[in-house]
Amino acid sequence: MIDTQVAEHLLHSADLDYSALQQSLQSMYNGSVDYADIYLQSSIHEAWVLEDSIVKSGSFNIERGLGVRAVSGEKTGFAYADSIDPPALKRAAAAARGIAEQGVERKVGVLSAVQHTPLYGVDNPLDSLAEPKKIALLQAMDKRARAADPRIKEVSVSLTGSYEHVLVAATDGTLASDVRPLVRLNCSVLAEQNGRRERGSSGGGGRVDYHYFMQPVWLDTDGKGPEKQRFESYVDEAVRQALIMLEAQPAPAGSMPVVLGSGWPGVLLHEAVGHGLEGDFNRKGASSYSGRMGEQVAAKGITIVDDGTISNRRGSLSVDDEGTPTQYNTLIEDGRLVGYMQDKLNARLMGVAPTGNGRRESYAHLPMPRMTNTYMLGGDKTPEEIIASVKRGIYAPQFSGGQVDITSGKFVFSASEAYLIEDGKITAPLKGATLIGNGPDAMSAVSMVGNDLALDTGIGVCGKDGQSVPVGVGQPTLKIDAMTVGGTE
Amino acid sequence: MATTKTSANLTAPEQLQPDLDRALQALDEALAQAKKRGASAAECALAHSRGLSVSTRLNEVETVEFNQDGSLGITVYRGQSKGSASTSDLSPEAVAIAVEKADAIARFTQADSCAGLADKELMAFGYPEPELFYAADQSPEYATEQALACEAVMLSVDDRIVNSDGAHYSSHCGFRVYGNSHGFIGHYMSSRQSLSCMPIAKEGEKMERDYAYTVARNPALLSSPEAVAREAAATTLARLGARSIPTCSAPVIFHSDLAHHLFGSFAGAISGGSLYRKSSFLLDHLGQPIFPDWLDIHEDPLIPGGLASSPFDHEGVVTQARDIVQNGVLETYLLTSYAARKLGMQTTGHAGGIHNWRVQPKASHLDADLSALCKRMGRGLLVTELMGQGVNMVTGDYSRGAAGFWVENGEIQFPVSEVTIAGNLKQMFQQMVAMADDVDPRHGVLSGSVLVENMKIAGA
User: Fold this and answer.
1) Which of B44, B91, B110, B284 should be substituted to probe chain A, the one whose Cβ sees the most A Cβ atoms within 10 Å?
2) Contact A488/B388, CB-based, under 8 Å?
3) What angle do CA B393, B399, B404 make, to 5 degrees?
4) Residue A436 binned pLDDT confidence (cut-offs 50, 70, 90)
5) Model pTM?
6) What is the CATH classification number for the domain harbouring B123?
7) Is B182 in the same domain as B271?
8) What is d(CA B6, CA A477) in angstroms, rounded to the nearest whole number?
């Protein structure tokens, strides 16, 4: 369906209508052009930052523009404009069309609205809280952090919200729109003890409004424990991490068993598996997973999915940036490679269907196959029995981020909170360390899968070819029999 | 401004002039609106870039992108409170909305005694025009020709290069404009082009990829497509057969292509923002030895064609040549006016970052080239790739994924991958042993390869 709000916002206010889009597409669709699309986008973004116990800065950004793409075989022509109006559309279309030979005109499909289920609200999240209340929220967090422990010396809190309208029209008749809210709240603290300083940070968000941060949550995963508001849980978590790090000892170096916590450590899957299963790399034969469809690429019992359809999640989209509704895509099933993530271009060239993974950072960037929410399904082990099975290794419940070389399959991710496991028990906290491995090897070395699947709190940003998009990750507690841990001892 | 033969295809400053005029008008408009609204001070910045990027893959054009980017940012002060806004649309209506938004935010943010513009007497009034704009051919035909030429050579070098992740040529030019309510308005034009390629090599079942690139403001200073192709092919082929090594402690050489990461972390640690937040491993180190006494770091913001050249910083403060490190001793922090006030010091003109650093070892610790540095090391790891973030700026703890070559008796033995290198930056800086005279010109920090005495290498 096409939201009338989007049409009003992106088309009518700019002297454009559907027939103008149709005409513009038709002007490109001839000769060797196989496909063309027009992407209209407007976004507003705000940020409020607290430091030194005062909300000292705030910013507001407005972006509005259009991108036009023409595809001929494997060739793509692309141009964009930072305004939405008929002349800008015409110029961009002519420039994008330039890559292909002119020739016989082809008929653009009648633009018809793509049916999809909205996964999030259409209201502007920036308006969900009055400015004085945004300030009060940040101050409450500062106060809570400083009151938690005298060793907390610095607190910074940031609140951001964005609100986007997008509209896509394509020569295949696609006409789709989406209204996308996204909010994020983050708390970072610095603890100091005997001259030693350490940082802790925590946060979250999603395609919701600011009231999300005031909802009640529970301390314990079993739903018991004291009730608190979500923003309070972020503060407590940041403080907890910083105080633990004050006691951290140097991490060990070398190959050893590694137990990864549930939730955000799923960044492992994002790096070790996810990128390698993006359609572009596989069409080009550039991934260590290329040509391995149907093969066993992970231990039995491992199922990994990319799921863009979870309501209100940071990585979710009702439709992707090419107007394809997002899906629940199984990538690895019981250890066997069963699916890649596709945008339209790579799907067409590989002779498969798009999977709703065509994403772009903005109108000024080309779409590519990208992840949404990538996670591993739960197994049957309790986290306790997984820890108990390790004689000597590390347990890592928090990570800062990672990177992968999809061709060799080598990936890294950096633990920001880790502990030594000795004789099946968690003992000393460890300083941060980078873990390195090879995707297929690491996935084959997974020997235990927990029953505690959790998704991250809504903090992920994925970068590829210079484009950033919000994503989600998740996993249950996992044991990898051997990984290289980059400590100093 | 460099003069070159005129050609229909070559960019010229005059082509940017209409956009620059529009930008200056928008900036005037924004500052006037802020004043009209009763702002006590305001500043406005605008960047504009246009050009194109062409990529080829397996000798065919893959994408042709026409780029045109720009946005205006305005900061409005109401006493000691401030608000900021930006807009990609420079129409008077959009600029008015941005100023209104910034002003509205300034009514809610809290007074900060350190907030404000940099002092008027520090403004770069009468700044020298930097030489950063060079005419370039920005036609899709020329860009395509460069990328195709590069990729064709890359694919023909060796049978083990079985695939390609493409070649890429881009050329952009544009300008920066900054103005504030002190009456300072500055602007300069610049250009930048780059060519890169990424081969994929295969031996047995194992694939490796690497890349090479050239980047310069002046197109005449780019390496040839053939040179880029041969370098990419050589580095990629050299990785074939890479293996992990047993966990050990050993000396490490950071290849000149990576050395800027080390000095970049140093720059981050002596930056005002990290210091006033007490989030640096180099707190209170002004005047202290950070590096061995044979190492100097000099900053020159006005190198013609310099990738990090700038006559004024992001607050309009005049930039100047400085010694950052002399005989290993930290001579200055890198401050913005805000950080300077927080620390009770004076801004150093570093809003927006550093301006062309040259890392200069004394002759006694400078080897002629990388192979001489390997000989000096004897046995250890030559690192040519780093992966992941792994740097804790609060503690200096360092742990990153690495790939490179194992060196014995000063000679490369075999390629290494899937290892980590770990240590602490403070110690790594002090344990620098020597450098090679193989300065990489492609970064804002100009440095040769660096030998560090000892790090922990984790492997198989």
Assistant:
1) B110
2) no
3) 130
4) very high
5) 0.95
6) 3.30.2290.10
7) no
8) 65
Q: Which residue has the tokens 């507003």?
A: A44
pLDDT in tens, A378-387: 999 999 999 9
**B183 and B156 share one domain:** yes
Q: Which amino acid is at A455?
A: L
B126 φ/ψ sector (left φ>0, alpha ψ -120 to 50, else beta) = left
| A403 and chain B in contact, CB less than 8 A | yes
Residue B67, chain A, CB below 8 Å: the answer is yes
Q: Which two tokens stand for residue A368?
A: 């590519």
Q: Based on the domain organization, do B223 and B323 belong to the same domain?
A: no
Q: In this structure, are B258 and B393 located in the same domain?
A: yes
In tens, the pLDDT along B406-450 reads: 999 999 999 999 999 999 999 999 999 999 999 999 999 999 999
| pLDDT tens by residue, A73-98 | 999 999 999 989 999 999 999 999 99
Looking at the fold, whether B258 and B325 belong to one and the same domain comes out as yes
**What does the pLDDT look like over A296-345, one tens digit per residue?**
999 999 999 999 999 999 999 999 999 999 999 999 999 999 999 999 99
* Range of the structural domain that residue B187 is part of: 10-238
A135 CB neighbours in chain B (<8 A) are 108-110
Put simply, the answer to whether A286 touches B86 (Cβ < 8 Å) is no
Judgement on whether residues B234 and B279 belong to the same structural domain of the protein: no
Domain annotation covers residue B138: yes
Distance from CA of A223 to the nearest CA of B (A): 34
What DSSP state is assigned to residue B224? P
**What confidence tens digit (pLDDT) does each residue in A363-381 have?**
999 999 999 999 999 999 9
The DSSP letter of residue B74 is E
Min Cα–Cα distance to chain B from A78, Å: 5
* Residue that is last in its domain, among B207, B238, B269: B238
In chain B, residues 122-161 whose CB comes closer than 8 Å to chain A: 140
Whether residue B448 is found in the same domain as residue B303: yes
Instruction: Find, in chain A, the residue whose alpha carbon is nearest to that of B51.
Output: A79
Q: What is the pLDDT of residues A207-237, one digit of tens each?
A: 999 999 999 986 555 556 668 999 999 999 9
| B53 neighbourhood in chain A, CB within 8 Å | none
Distance from CA of A278 to the nearest CA of B (A): 14
> Pick from B68, B89, B394: which is nearest to A198 by CB?
B394
Q: What is the β-pairing status of strands B357-361 and A358-359?
A: unpaired
* B234/B258 same-domain check: no
Residue B298 lies in a domain: yes
Q: From the CA of B32, how many Å to the nearest CA of chain A?
A: 19
- Residue B287 belongs to a domain: yes
Q: Which of B88, B172, B454 to mutate to test the interface with A (most CBs of A within 10 A)?
A: B88
Contact A433 B71 (CB under 8 A): no
A164 vs B389: which has the higher pLDDT? A164
Cβ-contact B5, B128 below 8 angstroms = no
User: A363, A279, A315: which is closest to A84 by C-alpha?
Assistant: A363
In a domain, B1, yes or no: no
**Structural domain count, chain B:** 2
CB pairs A-B closer than 8 Å: 250
Yes or no: say if A407 and B206 are a contact pair by the CB < 8 Å rule: no
- Helical (H) or strand (E) element with B47: strand B41-57
Closest Cα in chain A, distance from residue B65 (Å):
5
Last residue of a domain, one of B192, B212, B238: B238
